[in-house]
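Narrative progress, year one. The postdoctoral researcher (J.K.) led the effort to move from monomer predictions toward full complexes, under supervision of the PI. The following entry was the first complex the group processed end to end, covering 360 residues in total.
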Amino acid sequence: MNAALFEYALRLGDDRLVLGHRLSEWCGHAPIVEEDIALANLALDCIGQASQLLELAGELEGAGRDADALAFLRDPTQFRNCLLVEQPNGDFAQTIARQVLFDTAGAHVLGQLAGSKHERLAAIARKAANEVRYHVRHAREWWLRLGLGTDESHARLQAALDELWPLTRELVTPDEIDTELCQVGIGADLRATGERFEREVGELIAAAKLRRPPHPAFAPSGRRGAHGEHLDHLLSEMQCVARAHPGATW
Amino acid sequence: MGARGRRSVRKKASRVSARPADTEWPLWEVFVQEKSGAPHEHAGSVHAPDGELALQNARDTYARRGPVTSLWVVEARHITATTPEDSPFLLGPGPDKLYRHPRFYKGSKE
């Protein structure tokens, strides 16, 4: 059970660590200073959630690794984040599409985990769910404005949706770990999340007058440590200081 | 944000067009209430294309640290303000008009 739960906490934590790092890359580069601050706030929330989840993972593993060791001293193949969150920021539409797609599934997962039988996980999820309500609101407002804005903003959002859509399957496709933890009342029911995701994203696609891309065949990979090249670059930047100065404090 | 906001209000007051450049979103003044029943106090300003995003930007800029119970945003162009030329006669009652201050009454000690 602890081995499955360790994997599960890594998945949840790595999603948020990698997404938080991606969002932080906007710092100083966002279209306007207010949005710069908003994206940095989202990034900080994600990294705070990741820190708690990885701390929990380290305790479950019982091998003496804390959140920092898990974040900074693992190699790409040991990361368990979904492929969606490691995608580059691209343009602003791509960042917003990634956020909407991840948070729509993520908010539902956190909502379920808030009632998990695992008390620590439930407490982390309750706090995170509250933060993510704002992420959802912010990203959806932008989604609508880009979709209904100019021809160019609409085309960019559609392109982002087309590119990211296949990666959303990983958010809502349970594997044996999801199934095992769901059955014992600890993990989320990803099938229920999938149904909610279909409905809510379907409404958002319609509201922004976008075209819904087809669902391609899908095999989960990020959860098993098979990542794209993007994650290598992200981690080498994120981890370089911690690895160059092991154990450093400041 | 903040300083720009104040400048823009003054500009408007002196009847100079405060229309932002075409590439710039309208300016919104932000009012923050720190506890229920307290007044909403001016905290600064943000740029935003509309009210909802102005609220969100205000939240991110002015309501992330201390406790906040309520936020107002109002587009700066809706604020009518005094000009420096107004102040001598509009804002002039001042300390020399003692009779305006109700300090000659003897109130109850209770």
